[in-house]
Amino acid sequence: MARPKRGRTLERKRAEQAAQKAAAAKKANRVRTGLLAAGSVLVVGAAIVLVAIQPPAPGLAFADLGNEHLQTIDQPHIVYNSRPPSSGPHLGELANWGESDLQIPPELYVHNLEDGGVILAYSCGTGCPDLVDGLRQTLEDFAGRNLILMPYQDIVDPDGVAYRAAAVAWGRVLYFDDLSDASGEQLDEFIRTFEGVDHHVGA
Predict the structure, then answer these.
(1) Boundary (domain end) residue, out of 54, 75, 96
(2) What domain range is 47 assigned to?
């Protein structure tokens, strides 16, 4: 027996309504996907812009030579890759923080770098009292921070150029010859950026 016309009309309306709902849901899903994609593009773009406008960290980066502990100061080990050394094998104890009149061997002070310290080194064959006084003032300005000031007679960049001073952190060296306004600002930024950063394995 044929269905009444009214029943067929009701079924057709329900089918149309279901199709309309499905189409609306599909459209809403496309819009949502488009918004998510646009948002992702904006986030990535903003990150790229931030990286592009952020100034690079001061100093030259050197490959991390690891955290091997030496038993004695004269124990053979790999050659350090920066002058002054900025990472690699070192003794288990720390050098004293503050100013030292003597050059501290890297096998000792590199542990201070691992603990987040910064070395302020100067090489003045003919004397450079103004530079040393400026470095002493930096030491005072950053009182309470993990800094060592000392003479060091081998301050040379990777191109073989000798410098009168350097700031050394783990895997990073800032070379300079004086404390002009520009180099003084770079030195302060170097200390603020790298002092206090722990470089123990797993830190």
Answers:
(1) 54
(2) 1-54
